[in-house]
Design brief:
Layout: E1 3-10, E2 13-19, H1 29-36, E3 46-51, E4 60-65, E5 71-72, H2 76-90, E6 94-99, E7 102-108, E8 114-120, E9 139-143, E10 146-153, E11 157-162, H3 171-179, E12 189-197, E13 200-207, E14 211-213, H4 217-229, E15 236-241, E16 244-250, E17 255-260, E18 263-270, H5 272-275
Parallel strand pairs: 2-3, 4-6, 11-12, 13-15
Antiparallel strand pairs: 1-2, 1-18, 3-4, 4-5, 6-7, 7-8, 8-17, 9-10, 10-11, 12-13, 13-14, 15-16, 16-17
Length: 282
Amino acid sequence: MARRFLKMHGLGNDFVVLDAREDRFTVTPAQARAIADRRTGVGFDQLILIEPPRNAGADAFMRILNPDGSESGACGNATRCVARLLAREAGAEAVTIETTAGLLASRENADGSVTVDMGPARLDWDRIPLAEAVDTLNVPLSAGPLHGATCVNMGNPHAVFFVPDAEAVDLAALGPGLEHHPIFPERCNIEVAQVLSPELIRMRVWERGAGITRACGTGACAVLVAAARRGLTGRKATIRLDGGDLRIEWREDGHVLMTGPVATSFTGELSDTLLAVEEVAA
């Protein structure tokens, strides 16, 4: 049967959102890849399944699939989208979303933006995870003009490179090799960041399983944490992405708050053809 979906985005980081709470279903990696095709499918940076919560303290469980069919533990921009849907559905200001990375408390603000507590930043090498014990503040990793990554886990792994000019980095060329570098056993999201002032950072991102996207919420959180750890900023700053700005705060208790906009682009139905695809044996 055809499945209704919402096409949503946060700063151009776009999602196909499917509600699987009442009529429970799954999406296979092959189906995700077919839906992700921007010519023959719908196109997305991530596909989001809203499922019944596993935890009594949550309003729903959010499952995240990348365009290559792999699963991700966290997605900040998608969390804001789902938070708005659930909050308006319940007539509530605050909701809690469950992910494989934990419970994320969220609230819709008076200006229409959404704030999500993305949980604590994980900084130990085995929590990123890395393949060996190294100082996560300055991981000995290089590619072209990029040297010395600061690594942070925000429910998914990130490697942040601080550069003089974020626009000058050929992220399309460098991103794939860094994502799949042997030091990252679960692959990695790659950010290049340029500190414009103590309150403003320019960031571009190569997302694990998706490539270059216009915005990445967990990446923005990782960039702020990395900058604060290096003494380049305080614990609060605006992160300027290709799609716009996110406001990030790294609280003293280790939790990271992310605030930004949410938008719905359109609604539609997934065709039987897209849902009928099967995995091809290797």
